């Protein structure tokens, strides 16, 4: 019996140590297995090893501990909040605060006030504080703004406060804007933050800066633009010009903002972008037109649907679906069951139709030879199943399906998916 216990401990120890594997794929596979099996020894093993792990692995360790029942997780998180690793300490204390243990705040604030924290570590630390509104934590972060944080840290701080909404942040940002020698990119971030908070007096400066900095300025501050209550016609006009760039990621962001803020003046731009060579931009343009005008003629969409370009046909089918029109479902189903380069996109679109007929093709695609197809099918099922069965919970994470995992691990996970489907499907 003792030998069996030692073997179990060694097995759990190897698994937990594997969370720090060099391969991100291996780390994720091990994390999902630990989530599913939850060996009782794992939290203590994480506590022993985590301080020496790489940052991404430390995140997984804290998340794993947090997944255990409260009588196990909370004492372990308390011990981890006293870790010598600043990231582990902050992550664990933040989880305790989210779980409703306010006494963790004092220790977290003390950790954040350490003067020896490297500047490069701050962006990651700030991301671990997402959504925390405690006044003392906000005060420490506001002092980081006043201390003229580096560019990456400043963007992390502004994104944090765009969510938290502490009113003390605005004077600190406004004071920073008054300093001489700020480069245009930094000024753009600060102006975008104030506009996102409703300060229209900065709109003209934002327009000038965005026109000067261009695409990189929009990309790095996209979340702030997205959260703005309104944008001036001048700012929207600059965004419309950026939407016609050849950089697909930037064009996509600009088109999405036009869908949120665009006026009649920008609609011709969106109409042109329906024909974009980049399918994501084309889809976003269709969505934006529907959102702003509510009127993309059905006949136009049906013509695109019947055309030879499968990716554009899928975009048209998705646009019809958003108008509660299932006229494109059969075309999507046909492409999803084929072997063309558009199959992955077809699977993603298929998962949005909220139809029982979509499930089997998606389950079949989990075993496809192409990893991108497998990933698309998995993502579509994660979106579709809760919509089809809102009162029957299935834990996709603990099922253990990883598109890039080993064939054996994928087959076992697919069996769990299918078992749920067989139980839940209508007869």
Verbal overview:
The protein has 427 residues and is mainly α. Among the domains are: 1-107; 327-427, Leucine-rich Repeat Variant, CATH 1.25.10. It has helices at 2-17, 24-37, 42-49, 55-66, 70-80, 86-98, 104-112, 122-127, 135-146, 151-164, 169-177, 184-196, 203-213, 215-220, 222-227, 233-243, 248-261, 267-273, 279-293, 298-306, 310-322, 329-336, 343-350, 359-365, 371-388, 396-399, 407-424. 40% of the residues are buried. Residues 1-10 have low confidence and may be disordered.
Alpha-carbon distance between the termini?
Answer: 47 Å
Number of helices: 27
Q: Averaged pLDDT, please?
A: 90
The H/E string reads HHHHHHHHHHHHHHHHHHHHHHHHHHH
Give the overall form.
flat
Structural class: mainly alpha
Low-confidence segments, given as residue ranges, are 1-10
What is the radius of gyration?
A: 25 Å
How many beta-strand runs? 0
Topology (elements, then pairings):
Blueprint: H1 2-17, H2 24-37, H3 42-49, H4 55-66, H5 70-80, H6 86-98, H7 104-112, H8 122-127, H9 135-146, H10 151-164, H11 169-177, H12 184-196, H13 203-213, H14 215-220, H15 222-227, H16 233-243, H17 248-261, H18 267-273, H19 279-293, H20 298-306, H21 310-322, H22 329-336, H23 343-350, H24 359-365, H25 371-388, H26 396-399, H27 407-424
Helix pairs in contact: 1-3, 2-4, 3-4, 4-6, 5-6, 6-7, 9-11, 10-12, 11-12, 12-13, 13-16, 16-17, 17-19, 18-19, 19-21, 20-21, 21-22, 22-23, 23-25, 24-25
Please provide a brief summary of the model:
This protein is mostly helical and 427 residues long. Among the domains are: 1-107; 327-427, Leucine-rich Repeat Variant, CATH 1.25.10.
């Amino acid at each position: 019996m003792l030998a069996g216990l030692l073997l179990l401990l060694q097995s759990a120890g190897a698994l937990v140590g594997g969370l720090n594997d060099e391969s991100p794929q291996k780390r994720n596979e091990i994390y999902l297995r630990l989530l599913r099996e939850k060996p009782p020894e794992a939290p203590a093993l994480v506590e022993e090893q985590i301080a020496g792990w790489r940052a991404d692995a430390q995140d997984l360790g804290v998340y794993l501990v947090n997944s255990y029942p409260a009588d196990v997780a909370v004492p372990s998180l308390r011990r981890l909040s006293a870790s010598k690793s600043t990231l582990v300490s902050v992550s664990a204390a933040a989880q305790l605060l989210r779980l409703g243990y306010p006494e963790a705040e004092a220790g977290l604030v003390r950790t954040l006030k350490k003067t020896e924290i490297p500047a490069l570590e701050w962006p990651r630390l700030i991301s671990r504080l997402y959504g925390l509104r405690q006044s003392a934590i906000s005060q420490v972060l506001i002092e980081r703004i006043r201390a003229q944080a580096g560019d990456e840290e400043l963007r992390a701080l502004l994104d944090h406060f765009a969510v938290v909404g502490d009113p003390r942040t605005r004077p600190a940002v406004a004071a920073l804007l008054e300093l001489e020698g700020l480069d245009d990119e930094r000024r753009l971030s600060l102006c975008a933050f104030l506009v996102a908070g409703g300060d229209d007096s900065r709109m003209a400066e934002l327009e000038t800066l965005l026109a000067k900095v261009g695409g990189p300025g929009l990309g790095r501050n996209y979340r702030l633009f997205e959260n703005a209550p309104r944008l001036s016609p001048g700012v929207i006009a600059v965004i419309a010009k950026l939407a016609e760039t050849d950089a697909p990621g930037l064009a996509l962001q600009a088109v999405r903002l036009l869908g949120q803020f665009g006026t009649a003046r920008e609609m011709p731009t969106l109409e042109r972008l329906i024909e974009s060579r980049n399918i994501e931009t084309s889809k976003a343009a269709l969505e934006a037109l529907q959102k702003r005008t509510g009127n993309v003629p059905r006949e136009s969409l049906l013509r695109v649907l019947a055309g030879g370009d499968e990716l554009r046909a899928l975009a048209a089918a998705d646009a019809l679906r958003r108008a509660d029109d299932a006229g494109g479902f059969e075309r999507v189903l046909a492409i999803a069951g084929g072997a063309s380069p558009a199959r992955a996109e077809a699977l993603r679109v298929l998962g949005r139709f909220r139809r029982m007929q979509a499930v089997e093709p998606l389950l079949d695609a989990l075993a496809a030879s192409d990893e991108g197809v497998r990933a698309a099918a998995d993502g579509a099922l994660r979106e579709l199943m809760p919509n089809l069965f809102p009162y029957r919970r299935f834990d996709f994470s603990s099922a253990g399906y990883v598109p890039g995992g080993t064939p054996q691990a994928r087959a076992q996970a697919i069996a769990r998916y299918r078992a749920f489907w067989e139980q839940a499907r209508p007869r």
